[in-house]
Amino acid sequence: MSLAKYGRRMNRTGCLFHQATTILRGECRCFMIFFVLLVIQGCTPASIDAPDGAPATLDPIVLYNWEDDMPQSVLAAFTQETGIEVVYRTYESTEEAVANLRAGAVYDVVVMENRHIPTLISANLLARLDHHNLPNFKNVSLNFRGLTYDPDNAYSVPYSWGTTGIVVRSDRLTEPVMRWADLWEARYAGHVALYRGQPRETIGLTLKSLGFSANTEDPAHLQAVLTRLLELPLPVHFAEDYDPFTVSTSMIDGPVSVGMGYTSDMLEGRAAGAPFDYVLPEEGGLLWGDNFVIPASSTQRRQAEQFIDFLLRPEIAAMITNQNYYAMANDAALRFMKPEIIQNPYIYPPQEQMNDVEIVLPLSETGEQMYEQVWNQFLEANTAAGSR
Length: 388
Hints:
- Helices cover 33% and strands 15% of the residues.
- The chain is an alpha/beta fold.
- Strand 1, helix 2 (72-82) and strand 2 (86-91) form a beta-alpha-beta unit.
């Protein structure tokens, strides 16, 4: 998801923040006054011992996330309240993020898709969370807690979610697009876009078009997917998960009429004055989810948990949605959101549409290898055919 998180992900109230606290240095009496003020405000001191007993610090923490996913105003509010600066690092795909974690890169909080979490846990790359430091976890929707990839939420905190469907530029269509299968219609040759950085979702939508589960690991089903993908009318336009190469920009400035995409693509197109629409296909859309995790390499886990708990406050979660227009896995935040967001069926689809949506779940190691093989063969074939 960014637009990048939607692609995927381009997340989008006002709330009252505690006054910034200043760390008083010097006499013990000054420190005691500071501590009492913190207790009165209900804040946790920013200088907290690390889990290994390392000295307390006010060093910056590093957030690793989709580009433009986290509003700078939220980061500034956290720094104002706690004195802890948040350094914002970005990735272009969660595959890139996973690769960097494996390579030993150090971050304190990472936004990670559901499907990667079991692999990261198995590789001992995630820290176990101390839920005593996450009292606002109570705000997380029951619908997103305890999912199969982390049944006790021992390593992940649900953050945001959305659907993957079909984005269309209606002024370029002669017939309505209602199904994934419509992407294979010859009349759309040269006008279909897919996200290069979202192989799971492209394979998933193709599986759905064939009547299979988006999470199947049946070799016969995946062979059918490869055959089906190679039947897409050429050339296929490959969009990227970041501006200015998203599906929406390829529809605004390029020849694309229809493609896999996210509500953020549709909203971007409409903001540019183009007649965009978004469809959850009859075969069923896909559901993605992002989570907060703390890498095992973090040396500031307590501060990282403090930051995650801050983001779980209802007014802060709503502040993110009100700017980025993504659905939050935070029920308590709904009352702080703009009415036009809560009532927007593209962001919060009605239940009858959600009944046919399938969540993209983690695969086994063998499944990952099979999906990767299908994707690489598809890309190679399209490169040879001159797709862009």
